[in-house]
Amino acid sequence: MTTVNWDASELNALAADLGKAGYEATRKAQLAVAKAAFDVEAQAKEIAPVKTGALKASIGVGISSDGLTAEVGPTVEYGPEVEYGTSRMAPRAYLGPALDVVGPSFAAAIEQIGGEILS
């Protein structure tokens, strides 16, 4: 009778490494999201037009419970009108330009995390 022996120890080690990489990648992604969100907030506050200071003061960050998504924006009701303009007022964008400044470094951070997983 012929027998075949299978050694799955390397597969088990690979599975453990992938599981660990997934956790580490998620944690690094959460940090990248938070950093980018707070960087966008700071940049938007720097760019935001100031009449009374209420718009600038109302710009804040909300991060999801899983830490993988964030929302940056003002809480004053006229924030979108300032960003996009109206029929009577030209736009004075502050969020879009802030995202343009921070976006490339965020994309680079996520690419680096992906590269670490694959290497």
Structural features, described:
It comes from Brooklawnia cerclae. InterPro entries: HK97-gp10_tail. Pfam families: HK97-gp10_like (PF04883). This is HK97 gp10 family phage protein. The chain has 119 residues and is mostly helical. It has one domain. Helices cover 62% and strands 7% of the residues. It is built from four helices and two strands. Strands 1-2 form a two-stranded antiparallel ribbon. Helix 1 runs antiparallel to helix 4. The model has no long low-confidence stretch (mean pLDDT 86).
Shape: elongated
**Low-confidence blocks of residues:** none
Count the E strands. Answer: 2
C-alpha Rg (nearest Å): 22 Å
- Give me the side-by-side strand order of the main sheet: 1-2
Distance between the termini: 42 Å
The structural domain count equals 1
List SSEs in N-to-C order.
Answer: HHEEHH
Helices and strands in order, then pairings?
Elements: H1 9-47, H2 54-58, E1 60-63, E2 70-73, H3 79-84, H4 95-118
Antiparallel strand pairs: 1-2
What's this entry about, in short?
It holds the Pfam family HK97-gp10_like. By secondary structure, this protein is mainly α. It has helices spanning 9-47, 54-58, 79-84, 95-118, and strands at residues 60-63, 70-73.
